[in-house]
Amino acid sequence: MPELPEVQSICKSLAESIIGEVIHRVIVRESGLRWEVDAPGLNRLVGGRCVSSIGRRAKYILVHLEGGVILMIHLGMSGRLGLHPSGSPLAKHDHVVFELGGGRELRYNDPRRFGMVEAFEKSHYWTHPRLVHLGVEPLEGEFEGEVLYRLSRKSRVAVKSFIMDARRVVGVGNIYASEALFAAGINPKTRAGRLGLSRCVRLVECIKEILNRAVLSGGTTLRDFANLDGGSGYFSEQLQVYGREGEGCPGCGSGIRRVVQSNRSTYYCVKCQR
DNA sequence: CGGGCGGCCTGGAGGC
DNA sequence: TGCCTCCAGGCCGCCC
């Protein structure tokens, strides 16, 4: 589901729709997500507080509340957030409901329950166990070719696995990893430590460009991704290799291959990606 | 320690 | 129609 551009898109919608709103109460209908949802804790920390801003770290959505509390939401593979009128019928898998003012509710829906919802005091941000090990943000200036080059020295893993490793760089998911490597002309199986500086520079440029373009398109819609309003993104039309096994490579026309790396599908062109 | 892999879940697609 | 298998965009934690 949501990769970084999708999460970014949802953050933008959230910022436009719930900043200044008070979260009056949190109703947990199903607490068995990736981690057990602590309903009393959520209500104690979140209940009655006003949303001051929306942030993001990797694929975690950070709802900043007045008084120094952060509500952190991860959409996992199938999570969605939606704004609904209070009292409208709940959908299957609506696990957590945030009651807002003005007769509205923000609902967290997640069929596969791989996501998470929790709240903590802002002072714990820098030591939070889910955040503390995270690497650089791919769309920030801190991520550049020389950084990737330095980080990858001595690594024997395939470059695709490397750029998907959140300890190094966050937010590069399975779809965009394939797409960025195609754009950079790099074979996904190449060991990260064997990339030269110029290829690292090129790869970082491609990662940024692909992610930025996807953000502008509102994310990629495959299966269940949807924006706050239920609308979808349009980047899927621009995917060059992902999900196109057997189709002609946009560069040379030869067949796109699918291989499995670390239990994930990788799509690439044998001729264009060396 | 780095790196590979299983597991968490539901549901959609496709084969028979 | 149903039953089966495979597949899915994330991430942690266990293993070597």
Explain how this protein is built.
This protein is α+β, with helices and mostly antiparallel strands and 274 residues long. The chain has two domains: 4-127, N-terminal domain of MutM-like DNA repair proteins (Alpha-Beta Barrel); 145-268, Helicase, Ruva Protein, domain 3. Helices cover 24% and strands 22% of the residues. Strands 1-3-4-5-9 form a five-stranded antiparallel beta sheet. A hairpin with a 4-residue loop joins strand 7 (94-99) and strand 8. Helix 1 (4-18) crosses helix 6 (197-216). The longest helix is centred in the C-terminal third of the chain and has 20 residues, at 197-216. It is elongated and about 55 Å long. It binds a DNA duplex (16 and 16 nucleotides) through helix 5.
Briefly, what is this?
Helices cover 24% and strands 22% of the residues.
Identify the CATH architecture of the largest domain. Answer: Alpha-Beta Barrel
C-alpha-based Rg, rounded: 20 Å
Mean of all residue-level pLDDT scores: 92
Low-confidence stretches: none
List the helices and strands and how they pair.
Elements lengths: L3 H15 L3 E2 L1 E4 L10 H8 L2 E9 L2 E6 L3 E6 L5 E6 L8 E6 L4 E6 L6 E6 L23 H8 L6 H5 L10 H11 L12 H20 L40 E5 L2 E5 L6
The structure holds a DNA duplex (16 and 16 nucleotides).
